[in-house]
Specification:
single chain, alpha+beta, 7-stranded antiparallel sheet, 22 strands, globular
């Protein structure tokens, strides 16, 4: 999971990119980078850490040009602390290309061999983004004829990228002196949204933006045009002309369910689905399951784990007719524990992040609602905190089904042994967490809650079901991923 943004403006792009990355900070906290294009020259700055600390005034002044892109990184491949793995990535031919990417490629072994042995290209990191920019560059080089760049040449290159690359990839690239390219994998697993506005300085001139979440567009005063379709490529020239084309043979929209459960901000809309409304519906369906397994009379209060589970918890309380209370206070200056590298770091951060107010727990039967349970580190600590604060009985519930399988499409769930639900039945998970009762959302209830009222009929739910939508995810591949993660 990362956050990406790219824009073509009539004025300086640097501040708008910076502002967009601040809004996308929840999608990645390991590193960040911005690149801009001035004529045929790229300017770039990337470093470890958060956006607000990464860019100083001198850095921003050097980011010249009216076209730019930016990235916030949450490491799912490579080393989180390695600044060389930070995006964007650059290749110098053809023309010069700078690229950012959200997702995970799943045929990296094959691509690495092809790039070395056939394409004769050099790779300097283990990042799959470097693989992607080199594949794009090689295929574009094969299309270029003469000195002018035709959008059709770009689209033919993206066609070849789709043929060679497997996995999830929402991608934005700048081609020096020519324009901005955005494209999405043929399944639309990771989000990418297109926006438009007219320039304040030149009301007849168009400005365009593409970003991971719609809140970036709305905050910047852009009208939401639409989601980039699965397999589609959009090319925007420096003077604001947009052309697009479907570049995949058999595209299908199968967006990642975890975006709606946890990753995205609730004020975003993705694939025509309001994240906030989806989480409300998840709460409604979870309430039905809770009513079946834990009669309402046995529960005194419903409490969320702030912040992403709050909409679901409110709906659970309302539907079950139980009092809703906020028993956990969140320290907003600690990052999201799920995306912190390392189990020890996550465990240490739980107590820094949350504090249980004893007045809300003492002598009560508590029903806790969380958005999901992945490794179980946070959940176990929360149960212990509730008991220490005086809770009489703790029922722990998850608005998502059990996470039993690795997620290979851009979320850091690579090893089965890290997942508390892998190989365990729900009573066994409950015992590990130390709760009195444990209730999960049903898989079909999650799917219907997210998709309701939209044109989306399928979701990428591999971490819940073990069904992977791309062709290269085999048991042998999963074993290879785990071995490399642990080495």
């Amino acid at each position: 999971m990362c956050g990406i943004v790219g824009l073509v403006s009539q004025g300086p792009a640097n501040q708008s990119i910076y502002d967009a990355l601040l809004l996308l900070q929840h999608r990645g906290q390991d590193s960040t980078g911005i690149a801009t294009n001035e004529g045929h020259v790229f300017h770039a700055h990337k470093t470890r850490g958060h956006v607000r600390e990464a860019f100083r005034t001198r850095d921003m002044r050097s980011l010249l040009g009216t076209m730019g892109l930016g990235h916030v990184r949450y490491a799912t491949k490579g080393v989180a602390s390695n600044e060389e793995e930070a995006q964007p990535f650059y290749v110098n031919a053809p023309y010069g290309i700078v690229l950012v990417h959200n997702g995970n490629l799943t045929n990296t072994r094959e691509l690495t061999r092809e790039l070395f042995d056939v394409d004769r290209r050099h790779l300097n990191t283990s990042s799959d983004t470097e693989l992607l920019v080199n594949v794009l560059a090689h295929e574009l080089q094969a299309q270029v004829r003469g000195t002018d760049l035709d959008p059709e040449q770009v689209f033919h290159a993206v066609e070849r990228v789709h043929e060679r690359v497997e996995g999830s990839y929402a991608t934005i690239a700048m081609i020096a002196g020519h324009g901005l390219l955005a494209f999405r994998d043929p399944f639309g697993i990771r989000p990418l949204i297109l926006g438009h506005r007219f320039a304040e300085s030149a009301p007849d001139k168009s400005e365009w933006i593409v970003a991971s979440e719609s809140l970036v567009l709305e905050s910047g005063g852009y009208d939401i045009v639409r989601d980039i379709a699965p397999g589609e490529a959009v090319f925007i020239t420096l003077d604001g002309q947009l052309v697009s084309r479907q570049c995949a043979r058999n595209p299908r929209l199968i967006p990642c369910s975890f975006e709606y459960v946890y990753l995205a901000r609730p004020d975003s809309i993705m694939n025509g689905i309001s994240v906030y409304d989806a989480r409300l519906r998840l709460g409604n369906r979870l309430a039905d399951t809770i009513a079946t397994h834990a009669p309402a009379g046995d529960i005194d209060v419903v409490m969320p784990i702030p912040d992403s589970s709050r909409p679901a918890a409110m709906q659970v309380a309302q539907k079950l007719g139980i009092e809703y209370r906020e028993g956990f206070y969140k320290n907003r200056y600690v990052g999201r524990t799920f995306i912190m590298p390392g189990q020890a770091e996550r465990k240490r951060s739980v107590r820094q992040k949350l504090n249980a107010m004893s007045s809300e727990f003492k002598g009560k039967n508590i029903l806790i609602v969380d958005d999901s349970i992945v490794r179980g580190t946070t959940s176990k600590e929360i149960v212990e905190m509730a008991r220490a604060a005086g809770a009489n009985e703790v029922t722990f519930t998850s608005a998502a089904p059990p996470v039993r399988y690795p997620h290979v499409y851009g979320i850091n769930m690579p090893t089965r042994d890290e997942l508390i639900a892998h190989g365990r039945k729900i009573p066994e998970i409950n015992q590990v967490l130390g709760s009195d009762h444990l209730i999960y959302q049903e898989v079909e209830d999650m799917r219907s809650a997210i998709c309701e009222g939209s044109d989306v009929t399928e979701l990428e739910m591999s971490c819940f079901t073990g069904d992977y939508v791309t062709g290269s995810v085999t048991p042998e591949y999963l074993a290879w991923v785990e071995a490399n993660q642990l080495s």
